[in-house]
Amino acid sequence: MTVTQVSAGWVPFAAVLLLAVATAGAALDGVLTARATGRPLVGGLLVPAAETARLFRQRRRTTVAADQLLQQFGSAGLLIAALLMVTVVPLGRWTVADLTVGVVWFNAMDVLLWAAVWLAGWGPNSVQPLVGGHRFLAQALSYELPLMFALTTPAVAAGSLRLGDLVAAQSGLWFVVWMPVAFLVFCAGVVAFSVWGPFSAAVGSGAAGGVLAESAGVDRWLFAAGRYALLAAGAAFGVTAFLGGGLGPVLPGWLWVLVKTALLLAVLVALRRRLPVVRPERLAVPAWLVVLPLVLVQLLVVSVVVVVRG
Amino acid sequence: MSVVTGIVFWVLAVVAVAAGVAVFRVDSMARATYALAASFVAVGLALLLLDLQFLGVLTVLMMVMEMAVMAIYMIMFMGMNPALMPMSMVHGKRPALAVAIGTFVVLAAGALLVPWPSRRGAPAGDLVQSLGEAVMHSKMLVMMTVSPVLFTTIVAALVLALPRGRYDRLGDDLNGTGRRERSRR
Q: Where in the sequence is the domain holding A277, given as residue range(s)?
């Protein structure tokens, strides 16, 4: 299955598709919350629409001596990064940008979040958001290197940084089968850069809402939508790099990508209700002393297999 | 150069220079840091125009990460909230200006006056691979030497900048648990 680059006219379609998948993730979280609190499930399903209506009518909150430019860039940065991430992810036979360095591009876009989340915390000139922003950077120091090596692993196996080649290299065997550690670390990285679930200390109640403590209206909507879009974009990339992308029987490739992305996204969204929040300073030791060596061994195993196989 | 490439180049060039100027004109460390990041991102994207995709994307990746960490350090060492206290981003104006102008004149003169050689041979088919081979084969020793030196420099700079840090007060016992126990006894 060769991947062709579609014309720039399809870019809005790709953006709408990402937002639709992200909305589905938000709706799923709403349903799970409704079920956990014993409220009607339909109400949970409508949470994305209700939140959008609520936040779009809400005023921006302004604080004293706030740096609004940086704050607004930070709030919008998550959604921008997610949109840029999916440009390299092929939807079956089509892709928006067929970069030869697609994997590095994804990595560079997730690094943009270092800036975005911290700026969203810095901007309001208020203690709790600033604490949240610093927490995110502390967490980023723990997750980024394992994530980078997890991204390297499929690229080494495929001998290419182009996502289309990654999918083609999985026609015999999906990468998740023989690089499970890299896949798990990648998923943890996606959850971490989306400030989600166990890695949501930066927006957690421990700092009175952290980065989001002073955020209201459109800014808050952008940040929330950005988190779901990041989870969706991360899931789409994970499907491409580890779960065979559009490969699969009967159904067309694009539908397989969507089905697998939806399933992986559902797992990532559901994680939030299953795992407690990890404090960033506690994360550093296991991340550097356990996870990083594990993912390096995974990379070594894959490299040896690649060399032996020729 | 097609028209679109030309427009993209000029937009990126203007953004890079304007953001670079902004670094010294703004009065907040966060703004100065991220203006520098924006300047580097524009340079990284300009590298894509030279078909140096790997180097271009890597420049964006590295620079955004570096600036995010640098902002933290700058604010940490200033020990104040520069958002509330606007400050000048320029120190030692005259020598800095002299060095900057001197460097620019030398580099610009070099770019304009040196007779550029015409291209010999063709670019490699797979630039990422040839870059990797260049770095890992012939330049391997340089890379292996440079990285520990860089790392040592960073640690040494931190120690020098923060002579009375936590290590000075607590030694290896950074959490202070031993000290607390001693005081309890």
A: 4-309
